[in-house]
Write a structure and sequence with these properties.
Elements lengths: L2 H8 L4 H14 L5 E2 H8 L3 H12 L5 E13 L1 H9 L2 H7 L6 E2 H4 L5 H10 L3 E4 L7 E4 L7 H10 L8 H9 L3 E13 L16 H6 L26 H15 L3 E2 L6 E3 H4 L31 H12 L14 H5 L1 E3 L4 H12 L7 E10 L11 E12 L3 H15 L4 E8 L2 E11 L4 E11 L1 H4 L8 E9 L1 H17 L5 H5 L9
């Protein structure tokens, strides 16, 4: 109860004093106590207001004794109230049928048609003639009917619900005409210091009271030393960590193995060259990638594999003409902060190719990647990438779409669209879109494709082995999964939807 309400409840001439006077009156007439619900009705107050009065009086000490009681009662639903005034659905249907009958199709258009037809048929008030011209026709089967449903509801309205049999009440409840409600009331009796007037109790001892000595004549409100204080706000998991755990669980449920992603520093060879990304590609420029100064270069490579990568870049091979440029080892040796976790996938696929016998494999990773971006409202220098890779014989674009559908469905994202795209190391490639209920628009949630032979065959993977893969930013599906309302709760105030969508939290780079 607010301070204003409390003052209104306990001040002179207040609801509290009216209640105390009522309690004095009924006990003088020989009653042991007073029910708060009956008191509210007698005083013309809402019961919830009177409950607040009782709790306020309890805080004053032993003015009253109050025992909480629970009871159940039956109340009419809005539909039940409607039947009180207009009759039950089945009676309305019966009365709407003329002597020549009514087409069933026309009857079903009536407001009470569907429910009333079913109930009237079960009561055998009406009959259906399927051989009638222009379609099935409904006729009255009896001369008159009695609206027992309305009569039972009227009994409840008069407070005579106990007169109804349980099966009748349950049937009306099933039809959503009655609702069983629980009412909490208080049985109130006089306390040891009962009085019909309420003296205001002081809550603070002020310096003025001490100086004047007036505190000796004042009554102070007692302190409840057993009352619990307000629980302090405690920490909680960041939404990204929550969703990351869910992603990881989904991958594990689908039979994927997690890849080691603890090397933030990667060589250009594994980050770009092994993925059949040319050395003159714009992503390899210093404006897009963080290059390392110390150590500036990597020195340890599988040389046979490196030579095959060099040849497919500069001369072609495996059915490809390559890029026709002079591939340089100096560029491949440059160290950088990895721009995507696909560099880890390349390492794992190369390791897979070195096995004596190829075995189908499913890998996943969730970890941080880095881009040399100008920081603004929509860009950060780092974000988290989720990646899934499946290697097996004969995999197609259809397999990729099926796996993506299963993956996003487990996440709770069911509305998906696919759009053709271009990636240097996948062909065909697809962007994945999901419909965002908060923004009322389709937003990109990931990129995917089938790894090119120019990437896989130099590794030593057998002919006929395909690798499907997809990647997405952890931040974007978090936005879609949690929704705009939860994002608002996280930041603690109203936010502009487009501003949230464009923020670094929702950024996607592929």
């Amino acid at each position: 109860m607010s301070p204003t309400m409390a003052a209104a409840a306990t001040g002179p001439g207040s609801a509290a004093e009216l209640f105390l006077q009522r309690l004095e009156q009924v006990t003088a007439d020989g009653e042991a106590g007073l029910c708060s619900l009956e008191a509210a009705t007698a005083l013309g107050l809402e019961h919830q207001v009177l409950v607040g009065v009782v709790k306020s009086l309890q805080s004053l000490g032993e003015v009253i004794e109050a025992e909480q009681r629970t009871s159940k009662t039956w109340e009419l639903t809005p539909e039940g109230q409607e039947i009180i005034h207009e009759g039950s659905h089945e009676v309305r249907v019966f009365n709407s049928i003329p002597s020549e009958g009514l087409l069933q199709s026309e009857l079903m258009k009536l407001p009470s048609g569907k429910v009333g037809f079913s109930k009237a048929m079960s009561n055998k008030w009406i009959r259906l003639d399927k051989s009638s011209e222009n379609g099935p026709r409904i006729f009255q089967a009896v001369e008159s009917v009695q609206d027992t449903v309305k009569e039972k509801l009227l009994q409840v309205q008069k407070g005579e619900a106990n007169c109804l049999e349980e099966k009748d009440k349950n049937e009306l409840k099933k039809r959503k005409l009655l609702a069983e409600v629980t009412i909490k009331t208080y049985w109130v009796k006089k306390g040891s210091v009962f009085s019909t007037t309420i003296a205001k109790q002081e809550t603070d001892l002020t310096p003025e009271m001490i100086a004047s000595g007036s505190w000796r004549d004042l009554k102070f409100k007692s302190y409840n030393f057993e009352a619990l204080g307000i629980m302090p706000e405690s920490g909680h998991l960041h939404p990204l960590l929550k969703v990351r755990t869910q992603f990881r669980q989904i991958f594990l449920e689908m039979g994927f193995t997690e890849m080691p992603t603890n090397n933030f520093i990667e060589s250009s060879f594994w980050n770009f060259d092994a993925l059949f990304q040319p050395q003159q590609h714009p992503a390899r420029d210093q404006h897009d990638t963080f290059f390392m100064k110390d150590p500036a270069e990597a020195i340890d490579f599988p040389m046979d594999y490196l030579k095959r990568v060099k040849r497919v870049h500069s001369q072609g091979g495996y059915g490809s003409q390559g890029y026709k440029y002079e591939w340089k080892l100096e560029e491949a040796r440059k160290n950088l902060l990895r721009t995507h976790t696909t560099a880890v996938s390349a390492r794992m696929l190369y390791r897979l190719a070195q096995q004596e016998k190829f075995t189908p494999t499913k890998y996943f990773s969730i970890d941080r990647v880095f881009r040399n971006e100008t920081l603004d409202a929509t860009h950060l220098a780092e974000f988290h990438q989720i990646e899934g890779v499946v290697a097996d014989y004969g995999l197609t674009l259809g397999d990729l779409m099926g796996v993506l559908k299963e993956f996003f469905t487990k996440l709770g994202i069911t509305q998906l669209r696919f759009k053709p795209a271009y990636n240097p190391y996948t062909e065909p490639s697809m962007e994945v879109f999901s419909y965002h209920q908060g923004l009322k628009k389709w937003v990109e949630v990931g990129n995917s494709g089938v790894f090119r032979p120019e990437m896989l065959l130099p590794m030593g993977l057998p002919d006929g082995v395909s690798v499907i893969a997809w990647g997405l930013s952890l931040e974007r599906p978090t936005m879609i999964k949690y929704g705009i309302n939860n994002i608002r709760e996280l930041v603690g105030h109203k936010v502009n939807l487009q501003m949230v969508y464009d923020s670094p939290l929702c950024r996607l780079d592929v």
